[in-house]
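Service request form, structural biology core

Requester: graduate student, group of Dr. S.
Request type: structure prediction, single chain
Budget code: on file
Notes: please return the result as structure tokens.

Sequence provided:
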Amino acid sequence: MKLIYTPKVGTSDIEVKLCVIHKHNVRVKPGDIICEVETSKATYDIETEYEGFVYVIHDINKNIIIGSPIAIISESQLNDIDLSIELNKLISFDESSSTNNSITKKAQILIDKYNLDISSINKDIITEKDVQELIFKGKLKNDLQDYKFSSRDILIVGIGGHAGMCIDILRQGNEFNIVGFIDDNLTQDDKYGLKYLGGLDDIEFLTKKGLCNAILGIGFVGNLKKREKVYNYLTQFVNIPSIIHNKAIIEPTARIQNGCQIMAGAIIGSNVIISQNCIVNTGAIVSHDSFISDSSHLTPGATLAGHVKIGKRVTVGMCSTIYIGLSISDDTVIANGKTVIENI
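Core staff response, request fulfilled:
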């Protein structure tokens, strides 16, 4: 049984409004969007890190304090009575403290041991994990107190499979020096030996230490709106250069904007324009005079004929083909292996 908490979403608000419920009493997998919340400035998707049956525990238009539970993930389906029982177990029993109902027992031990100021933790229920992250970030910031990043240093955002491809491309060249990674879920890199430098909300602190560059190493397959949001957030603080594998083929008249990732074996033809934050993945082909709008993803083996226009946040599935001169509208997902012969 897991709880999903209402995240801090980069505003000064202390609460958000639940405006849309996408999934309830259904099975979900990591990365699925379960609901949307609204602040005074914008609307944000809430997704799950866990697999199981999801239960949103608030009603539409309910105001929810940041840091408090918004949903529960169960290994099996629950009826209303079982849901109430399990929720009370998680919040009242396992998450209880002898001195403060909003701090778990294990969290309180760490707070007392290190004499911590926990005012920066914006949650109704403070867990051991929250306090451990506070300790780690405090140590990290102390370690970086006198550190100064160079203009060549670059950070990887995320440390999953897609990040690995980006790291390999960067290490082929000499333009940038990879100094570490940030990730909201993982704190250790077992493949590339990169140093953990915090979560996404630490990017501003790192830029104050001189960090200038970052690469978005999360593919967000099936959720390009979220990838675009993270990209736009990062551009407030750092430069996001385009990276191009040395085995990609790109005609000299093609134009590639900032933040794009061109993987091994990709072929980009004459007079092609690829807008910011796009991925042209392994073996994808973009023929002459085509236009790819912001934040789209051409997955491995996708083929575009000439004069094709792709909208924003479009996913072109693996080994699919798009006929000459066609237009694909924003937020379209083209299935793997599909042959497209008319506008979508």
